[in-house]
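User: Could you check the structure of this?
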Amino acid sequence: MDQRQKKELVEILQKGVEFECPMSRYTTFRVGGPVEALCIISDLEGLQRMVPYLGREKIPYLVVGRGSNLLVRDDGFRGVAIILREKLAHVEPNGKSNQIVLAGGGLALFELLDYCKGKGLGGLEFLAGIPGTTGGAVAMNAGAWGCDVGSRVQQIQIVTSKGELETLEQSRLKFKYRALSIPKGSVITSVKFELNRESPEAVIGKLSEYLKKRHEKQPSQYPSGGSVFKNPPQDYAGRLIEKTGLKGKRVGGAMISPKHANFIVNTGGARAADILALMDLARKKVKEQMGVELEPEIRVIG
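Assistant: Sure, the predicted structure tokens are below.
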């Protein structure tokens, strides 16, 4: 990105642009080199102006959300990282039905669940404890405990790579395991969920139950990026990695969690290279010993 492009980016957004920003501040791994520009976008108009500009200038971009399931290499990312806030991180009832909720793509999942808890709306409790955003959860069809978010999505709104606003109804959405197919370069700006009418007490109970299960089974003492690998069909990545004896294995400041082998944690001072080395080792050992090719669930950027 040259000086002209940096100047034009600031002119487009007016505010919320930071250059050479360390991504360790914006990822749950707490590692990662600098991004050329971090853009915090607060309204639809700004996003619609910026995305096609980046396309015309051939500047790569990605939506960061809350930085979970994301590993930025130590050399950083030569492009733009987008964070959606304010008007793009709202939540409100939608339409006449009191079971339909409209949530902005940048809305944190814990805020969405707090809203549902207060309104007595159930169906998304399994997301408790996942440090992501609504848009990110839908884009990767986040799930846990046999549930996935795609089953609750009625409609999404996207800004395409050309800056056009498009609404995709449920019938046009193709959810897969940890994935959603949408046009390349699109950004999810809002999601419409269809939920269940329940008592606030029932929703609170389920949230507490899922949080307890998550804390019991998954590491929370150190920063991590969530599940590192997708589960193979009819099996679990954590079980396969554990069978290779790699639980507790360290490279630099990174460690395969002794609590759950499908988590790599930053015990302090880890680099992205340390995490990548453990990922490569886990894939190699599982392939050699069990003949299974593990596929990363986290995105590696840079």
